[in-house]
User: Fold this.
Amino acid sequence: MNAGGIDAQRISSMLAQLRAAAQKPEGLGAPATQALSQVQKPAAASPTSQVSFSDALKASLDQVNNMQLQSEKMGQDFAMGNDNVSLSDVMISGQKANIAFQATVQVRNKLVSAYQEMMNMQV
Assistant:
């Protein structure tokens, strides 16, 4: 089923990726993975804690934001003449940030659509 430019299979795939990122152990290098693993640490003495949807969503948004900031910094470094940054690296970083942002917008649109549909349900 394709609704609003993104189908249910892609949404479930993105949710599976969020869940997989939430289950990775701390120290794998990605800021979002570290944030998710810190969220996983139980506040109480519960042996099995789960990451809430809002925490996973916030971590994903933080990761997209970090990608955009990193891309912008790489572009500025390249413009300033830094020899350690190549044009291809800047362009790839920019495209990765763009794709991540577009995916985030699609997820947001799907969430808003689902919320509106739920609010229009009669009880």
Remarks:
- The beta strands are 2-3, 6-7.
- Residues 2-119 form one domain.
- The chain has one domain: 2-119.
